[in-house]
From TrEMBL:
Residue span(s) of domain Enoyl reductase (ER): 16-326
This protein's UniProt keywords: NADP, Oxidoreductase
Gene Ontology molecular function: any one: NADPH binding
Keyword Oxidoreductase found: yes
Domain of life: Bacteria
SUPFAM superfamilies: GroES-like, NAD(P)-binding Rossmann-fold domains
UniProt-recorded name of the protein: Putative PIG3 family NAD(P)H quinone oxidoreductase
Pfam families registered for this protein in UniProt: ADH_N, ADH_zinc_N
Gene source species: Litoreibacter meonggei
Transmembrane annotation, as ranges: none
Length: 328
């Protein structure tokens, strides 16, 4: 297909609040060895985008300075050493950055086909959350059927994905959310109990159930010692973000005496090979669930690419339930 020389983008003009996101024009990137160039239809909006915008989450070396870690569209060009995909294929992809643009390059191994029955907007909402949730809940956390699983932030993109995946795997799913409306949405997705953290202490709820076998947390702060108390003996805590900060006093005697495991990961800095392995796991184990209608992305809202600042303000208000996308 004929490609333009330039493309519309939204760039971070300086570190700051949502209004530092501004429309601009940039040269079209060219795919390097092992990469494809995707003409995006939609891009996902995620918390790490806001951290990058604030100057707290630098892109990895060689990545685009533009925000945007996921998107869906059509392959427009292919770099050397790429096999198994063709120009014109419709894909969704995990991106190293650069998703707030008309075109983006990414490793071909990080692309997955658009699941049958899903729109491009829905497909754009899959990669960042599903790569994160599957790698941390299943590959790192080792969730098994019948286990008690607690996912904090149940109404977020991560939370809605984790609830559905864990429920489909046969786990007993508990979650936290900040309103009765959000809790009701979580129960509808498959949570056995959704805890309004403004009214009820999740520690009390989980301890009454025998403790959580696995907790997925992105809150941090004072949730860290509370998570430890909420775990069952031999339980596992997987940390993926720190919305309330990474530093806290923690009694590690509990970790030792009760044989607890505390681990965590951040997706973006991992190697291309590690991300490719996650993509293969998703293709084999999760994409069939999506195509069978057993799991679906929960969509909150859609904004035009040029309205990325409004999308960020909406995300940071925490009023959303599910995923926010940009129409390119």
């Amino acid at each position: 297909m004929a490609l333009p020389e330039t493309m519309r983008v939204v760039e971070i003009t300086k570190p700051g609040s949502a209004d530092v996101l501004q429309s601009a024009t940039m040269p079209l990137p060219s795919p390097r060895h092992g990469e494809v160039l995707i003409k995006l239809a939609y891009a996902g909006v995620n918390r790490p985008d806001a951290l990058q915008r604030a100057g707290m989450y630098d892109p990895p070396e060689g990545a685009s300075p533009l925000p945007g870690l996921e998107g869906a569209g059509t392959i427009a060009a292919i770099g050397s050493g790429v096999f198994g995909v063709s120009v014109g294929d419709e894909v969704c992809a995990l991106l190293p950055g650069g998703g707030y643009a008309e075109y983006v390059r990414t490793p071909a191994a990080h692309c997955l086909s658009v699941p049958s029955g899903l729109s491009m907007a829905q497909a754009a909402a899959l990669p960042e959350t599903f790569f994160t949730v599957y790698s941390n809940v299943v590959m790192r956390g080792g969730l098994k059927a019948g286990e008690r699983f607690l996912a904090h932030g149940g109404s977020s993109g991560i939370g809605t994905t984790a609830i559905q995946l864990a429920n489909t795997m046969g786990a007993r799913v508990f979650t936290t959310a900040g309103s009765d409306e959000k809790c009701a949405a979580c129960v509808k997705l498959g949570a056995e109990r959704a805890i309004n953290y403004r009214d009820v202490d999740f520690v009390d709820v989980l301890k009454a159930e025998g403790g959580a076998d696995l907790i997925l947390d992105m809150v941090g702060g004072d949730y860290l010692p509370r998570n430890v108390r909420a775990l069952a003996n031999d339980g596992r805590l997987v940390q993926i973000a720190f919305l309330q900060g990474p530093k806290v006093e923690l009694n590690f005697a509990q970790v030792m005496m009760r044989r607890l495991t505390i681990t965590g990961s951040t997706l973006r800095p991992q190697s291309d090979l590690a991300k490719a392995r996650i993509a293969e796991e998703l293709k084999r184990n999760v994409w069939p669930m999506i195509e069978a209608g057993r799991i679906a992305p929960v969509m909150d809202s859609e904004f035009a690419l040029e309205d990325a600042a409004k999308a960020h303000a909406h995300m940071e208000s925490s009023a959303h339930i599910g995923k926010i996308v940009l129409k390119v």
